[in-house]
Structures are given as structure tokens and as C-alpha cells.
Design a protein that fits this description.
Length: 196
């Protein structure tokens, strides 16, 4: 990739604030690449971060730093089948206590979770049942999978006080009760805004 931009190791090192030998070690896989360095390198080379690591793990970067894009969340995005993921990967640092769990990304199609992050960004989640949760915790951000007949949708919201009918999740102008048709399926552990 560096050569396609007509850069030698010394020039790339100067752009990144590294020596030529550091760039050589990064390219050869003998130097671990920090996430902030990978983001800077992707910006300089004008590529997606995932393009820097073909096959998921190269140059000392753990495969777990690139999580799959698994779909779209939105208040009015009802579907009769699973939404197709983009096959893209999102660079994240797995969340501390949950770093051993599978992380995935969900694109926000609208501003229903604007308090957390804007439309067009991702929420990074782990499976809710794997997060040692039996009941929701107040003020945690979660992904709710809603079902009406054959239709489903994913919505991101913040758990609010328990009402007589159970926990409820405000999402945009809507309040979604946690019940048999609306299940919490993911715990939001971070957000990701794409670098263009």
C-alpha cells in the first residue's frame, strides 16, 4: 500500500513521526502497531484500516481489533430477514472486562440514539447473555431486537427505570418495553465513528 502511494519507508516515517527502521519493523511484523498508529497510517494511505491487515491479523495486530459489521439499527427499519452485513470490519480496542467476548458493530441509520452517538456511526456490542446479565442495569446502553409477526428490527437505547410492566427503553420518540417480543440482545461497550 505504501508503494502504491509512491512513498518510501523514510517518507512514510516522516509523515507519521517514526524512523525508517520503525516503519520497516511495522511492515515486517516485528513491531506491534498501536491502534492510533493504524488509524494515522490508514488516513495517510487513504484506505480503510482493515485494508492494512489482510486476513484479519498481520503486522502484529490482533484479529480481535477488527470486529465485523453485523447490520443496521433504526427505529423504522423493519425487515423480514436478517439485514446483510457489509463484510466490512471496524477497528476497535476490545472493552476491558469484556475483551474475551466476541465484539460486533451495528451501524446507526438514524438519530434514535443521538444521546450516545450520531447517525452514521457504529455501536460496538457484545452478546447480552454473555455479559453476565440476567436483568438490565439502569442507564446502560443496549441493543433491543424487536419482533412483530415476521418482522424484526434492531434498536439502540438506554435502560430506564422499571415500570409495573417491566424495564423500558426510550429510543427516539418511542418507548420500547422489554418483553417476549422485545429482547435485549447486545450490550453497547463502545462507539466508533468512521474516519473519512
Amino acid at each position: 500500500l505504501r508503494e502504491t502511494r509512491a512513498l518510501n519507508q523514510k517518507q512514510l516515517g516522516a509523515l507519521m513521526g517514526f524512523t525508517e527502521s520503525t516503519i520497516s519493523r511495522m511492515e515486517g511484523g516485528s513491531r506491534m502497531i498501536k491502534m492510533e498508529d493504524a488509524l494515522a497510517l490508514a488516513r495517510i494511505l487513504r484506505v480503510d484500516v482493515a485494508a492494512l491487515f489482510p486476513g484479519g491479523s498481520q503486522g502484529g495486530v490482533a484479529e480481535s481489533l477488527l470486529v465485523p459489521d453485523v447490520g443496521i439499527a433504526g427505529l423504522n427499519l423493519w425487515s423480514t430477514k436478517e439485514r446483510n452485513a457489509s463484510n466490512a470490519t471496524i477497528p476497535v480496542i476490545p472493552a476491558g472486562a469484556f475483551s474475551h467476548l466476541a465484539h460486533s458493530g451495528l451501524l446507526l441509520a438514524d438519530d434514535h440514539a443521538a444521546e450516545l452517538t450520531p447517525a452514521g456511526s457504529y455501536v460496538i456490542t457484545i452478546p447480552y447473555d454473555k455479559a453476565s446479565r440476567i436483568t438490565p442495569v439502569l442507564d446502560e446502553w443496549v441493543v433491543i431486537t424487536c419482533t412483530e409477526g415476521r418482522l424484526t428490527r434492531s434498536v439502540v437505547g438506554k435502560v430506564k427505570a422499571q415500570h409495573p410492566s417491566g424495564f423500558q427503553i426510550p429510543a427516539g420518540d418511542e418507548t420500547i418495553p422489554i418483553e417476549s417480543a422485545n429482547k435485549i440482545t447486545g450490550l453497547v461497550v463502545s462507539t466508533y465513528n468512521s474516519i473519512k
